[in-house]
């Protein structure tokens, strides 16, 4: 089930009624576990089996590590192996087989490796990482193993953030699941506002830009202006799409008294690559930081090790998104950006940094680099990307005209995001507690905007496929 | 949950939003006076429709695949003997409503109503939202119960139509405005030309960059039982006005794929009502047309339409449904590859 289907509104209303009626924490959790199963198994019930397998592996691993501490290393290795194997099987095996066959073929060995053609379970990368983080935290002694399977299964399958994050940690979400909760009027109203805002971002901004992006990236070898316009429009689309999902997830969770972690902090206002990753998909970047980058040496290691750690972390980040060379290249591109920035930043003259407008220039430059990254990310045909770099052209007058229109449409579609930023930064803080009185007005305005600009043909969230 | 909100606080919080919501609802549900007419897209009966002895009803397939002159020749009718009522993107419930209001409602009494379309369109139970929004609100302003046009639904349909117009105005207007600034010419024409050139051959679902309203589709419902189709009602309506129905199914696409046996059985069973009332149901009487006859994957070129019309006309004659009592002089000979099921 998707947040932007009409069925979800009915589903959510029923879940909220049942949740409010459930008197105890235990009843609330059982109710949410059942609701999550219905939500996730709506289209493909068998996906639930895979989800629960992943969850139960980590649940059992936690108990085993506590029971036999001397074996905890092997238990963790086994749990992580099972999780990664399932992820590999469903997400990467075909990509691996095709590329190994091609490589061997290029070396003169004709090997036919069969592909499985498995359906990719929605959200598998999200819940696998979330579930694995629990085992690793228990192994590190940062978390006690949990005994209640209901609470643990709910932690892994909590429907608001199940299919596209934020990737929660047990220390944050499981702790809330285990604590008594009482939905409040503030939680309900604020959650509703956040969810409506998320739906507006998805349906009015992302889905309005999506047809233009699709058309541009369907052109076999677009010239530079058209490719850049497509990348810019995609920058708007992916931010509105993914942060829209996160806002709905956080809003729905807040209605029930949960606080999910922040996943976006105005990422296009970043002035450097490292700042970008502190603002974009925060739950994934912090996951990779804590479980990959730091164990590989992180900032404390020497220069060579740091290069290796950064490259490994960013390549993993790219590959996490999908089994495609475009994602690997995107990860590599960001690794180069991060390493290049780290190498050059200390050499920049202090006077330059102190210049008026330096921050604005840095933000603009970083946004340009981010858009180039999205070009790599969105262009699934690597040969087209190579052609663009090898033969950059300004294209025909018609292509430049279409590029201008696509850019203009993306700018206009992004206006609600800019308006919201202005409200959040400058207007709402001045209103103080009185701002809550404006919520009904915000609901009506958002509903009118949704009715006018939400296309009848909504698209799936981009991150569902990851 | 604690509840300490006073009435004055409620009024302060909700007064303006409720006014705004009420205004928005009133504006959205009112007919749009500036909405461009979609009627030119539908070929409505000519004013001399009482002269038409055969009326063709269908969607763009009927418009492209049947040539009135060729059909008149095949059926031995004089000029103007075949009238046409085709609405692009429409299906059976729309055709039924249009026959009632646009044919009989306007005083036409054709001898033969020729319903022409692909099987999914013939078996459609509920019209898609795009059919209702784009055409029927204008063609049948009074609504029609068969199309689910109760007052609430009609208001909703109008509101969605106005919203689509706002979306179109925003994005099409924006595109045309930018193109106008960029080229200094008529922006819309320049943009259409540019998008056709740039995106020609690109594999994507969208036909052009800008249209949004055209892509609206609430999804049609296909009947899966004979009693859920509209054939009974169509046959009774036409028989009540002294005519008969000929249902002619055409291939779904250029590939001329075979119908699933259960679909064919359903069509047979549903068309039983038409045959019981003296009509006929013909499955793809023209058989496979050469690919050179197709303008795209579905619609025929004029040359294909002429050949197709001759074959359809011949099949109608061969089936015995034409000529009707009273006779029509100068009938064409029957053609091969056609016949009633």
Write up this protein.
The complex is a heterodimer of chains A (about 475) and B (about 350). Chain A has about 475 residues and is mainly α. Chain A has 20 helices and no strands. Chain A has helices at about 5-20, 25-40, 45-65, 70-105, 125-140, 150-155, 160, 170-180, 185-220, 225-255, 275-280, 280-295, 305-320, 325-345, 350-355, 360-380, 380-390, 395-415, 415-430, 440-455. The mean pLDDT of chain A is about 90. In chain B, about 45% of the residues lie in helices and about 10% in strands. Chain B has helices at about 5-30, 60-65, 70-75, 90-105, 120, 130-140, 150-185, 185-200, 230-240, 260-275, 300-320, and strands spanning about 55-60, 80-85, 110-120, 125, 220, 245-250, 280-285. In chain B, strands 2-1-3-6-7 form a five-stranded parallel beta sheet, sandwiched between helices. The longest helix of chain B is centred in the middle third of the chain and has 33 residues, at about 150-185. Chain B is globular and about 80 Å long.
Helical stretch count of chain A? 20
**Helical residue percent band of chain B:** 40-55%
Helix percentage range of chain A: over 70%
- The overall number of domains of chain B is 2
Terminal CA distance of chain A reads 16 Å
What is the N-to-C succession of helices and strands of chain A? Answer: HHHHHHHHHHHHHHHHHHHH
CATH topology of the largest domain in chain B: Rossmann fold
Summing up helix and strand content along with how strands pair, one would put the structural category of chain B as alpha/beta
Q: Low-confidence runs of chain A (pLDDT<50, min 5 residues)?
A: none
- Characterize the main sheet of chain A: none
Poorly predicted spans of chain B: 203-219, 327-341
Q: Give the CA-based shape of chain A.
A: globular
Number of helices of chain B: 11
Name the CATH superfamily classification of the largest domain in chain B.
Answer: SGNH hydrolase
């Amino acid at each position: 089930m998707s947040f932007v289907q009409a069925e979800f509104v009915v589903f959510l209303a029923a879940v909220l009624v049942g949740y409010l009626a459930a008197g105890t924490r235990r009843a609330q959790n059982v109710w949410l576990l059942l609701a999550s199963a219905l939500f996730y198994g709506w289209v493909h019930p068998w996906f639930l089996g895979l989800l629960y397998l992943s969850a139960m592996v980590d649940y059992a691993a936690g108990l085993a590590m506590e029971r036999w501490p001397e074996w905890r290393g092997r238990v963790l290795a086994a749990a992580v192996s099972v999780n990664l194997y399932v992820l590999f099987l469903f997400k990467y095996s075909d990509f691996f087989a095709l590329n190994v066959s091609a490589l061997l073929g290029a070396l003169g060995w004709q090997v036919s490796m069969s592909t499985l053609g498995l359906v990719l379970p929605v959200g598998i990368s999200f819940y696998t990482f979330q579930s694995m983080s629990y085992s690793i935290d228990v192994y590190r002694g940062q978390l006690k193993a949990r005994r209640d399977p209901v609470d643990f299964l709910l932690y892994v399958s909590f429907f608001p953030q199940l299919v596209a994050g934020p990737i929660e940690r047990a220390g944050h979400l499981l702790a809330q699941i285990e604590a008594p909760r009482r939905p409040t009027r503030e939680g309900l109203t604020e959650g509703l506002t956040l969810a409506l805002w998320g739906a507006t971002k998805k349906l009015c901004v992302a889905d309005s830009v999506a047809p233009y992006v699709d058309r541009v990236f369907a052109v076999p070898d677009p010239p530079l202006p058209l490719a850049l316009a497509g990348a810019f429009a995609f920058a708007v689309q992916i931010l509105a799409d993914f942060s829209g999902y996160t806002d709905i997830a956080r809003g729905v969770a807040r209605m029930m008294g949960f606080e999910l972690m922040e996943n976006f902090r105005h990422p296009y206002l970043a002035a450097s690559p490292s700042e970008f990753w502190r603002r974009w998909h925060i739950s994934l970047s912090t996951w990779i930081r804590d479980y990959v980058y730091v164990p590989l040496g992180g900032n404390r290691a020497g220069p060579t090790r740091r290069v290796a750690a950064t490259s490994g972390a960013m390549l993993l980040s790219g590959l996490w998104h999908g089994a495609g060379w475009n994602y690997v290249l995107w990860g590599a591109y960001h690794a180069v950006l991060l390493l290049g920035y780290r190498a050059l930043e200390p050499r920049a003259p202090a006077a330059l940094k102190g210049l008026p407008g330096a921050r604005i220039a840095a933000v603009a430059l970083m946004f340009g680099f981010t858009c180039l990254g999205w070009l790599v990310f969105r262009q699934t045909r690597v040969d087209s990307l190579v052609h663009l770099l090898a033969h950059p052209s300004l294209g025909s007058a018609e292509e430049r005209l279409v590029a201008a229109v696509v850019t203009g449409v993306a700018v206009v579609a992004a206006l609600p995001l800019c308006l919201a930023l202005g409200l959040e930064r400058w207007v709402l803080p001045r209103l103080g507690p009185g701002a809550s009185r404006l919520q009904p007005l915000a609901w009506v305005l958002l509903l009118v905007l949704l009715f006018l600009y939400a296309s009848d043909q909504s698209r799936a969230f981009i991150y569902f496929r990851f | 949950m604690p509840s300490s909100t006073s009435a004055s606080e409620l009024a302060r919080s909700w007064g303006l939003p409720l006014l705004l919501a009420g205004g928005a609802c009133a504006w959205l549900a009112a007919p749009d006076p500036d909405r461009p007419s979609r009627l030119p897209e539908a070929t409505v009966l000519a004013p001399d429709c009482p002269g038409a002895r055969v009326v063709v009803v269908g969607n763009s397939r009927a418009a492209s695949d049947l040539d009135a002159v060729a059909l008149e020749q095949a059926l031995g009718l004089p000029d103007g003997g075949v009238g046409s009522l085709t609405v692009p993107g429409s299906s059976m419930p729309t055709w039924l409503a249009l026959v009632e209001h646009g044919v009989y409602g306007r005083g036409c009494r054709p001898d033969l109503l020729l319903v022409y379309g692909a099987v999914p369109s013939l078996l459609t139970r509920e019209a898609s939202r795009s059919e209702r929004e784009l055409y029927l609100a204008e063609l049948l302003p009074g609504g029609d119960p068969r199309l689910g046009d109760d007052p609430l639904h009609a208001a909703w349909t109008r509101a969605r139509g106005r919203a689509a117009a706002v979306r179109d105005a925003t994005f099409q207007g924006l595109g045309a405005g930018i193109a106008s600034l960029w080229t200094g010419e008529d922006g819309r024409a320049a943009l259409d030309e540019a998008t056709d050139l740039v995106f020609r051959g690109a594999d994507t679902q969208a036909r052009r960059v800008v249209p949004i309203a055209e892509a609206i589709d609430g999804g049609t419902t296909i009947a899966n039982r004979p009693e859920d189709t509209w054939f009974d009602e169509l046959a009774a309506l036409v028989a009540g006005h002294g005519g008969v129905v000929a249902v002619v199914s055409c291939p779904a696409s250029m590939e001329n794929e075979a119908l699933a046996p259960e679909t064919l059985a359903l069509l047979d069973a549903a068309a039983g009502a038409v045959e019981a009332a003296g009509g006929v149901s013909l499955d793809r009487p023209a058989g496979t047309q050469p690919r050179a006859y197709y303008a795209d994957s579905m619609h025929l070129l004029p040359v294909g339409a002429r050949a197709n019309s001759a074959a359809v006309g011949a099949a109608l004659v061969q089936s015995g449904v034409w000529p009707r009592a009273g006779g029509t002089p100068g009938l064409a000979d029957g053609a091969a590859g056609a016949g009633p099921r």
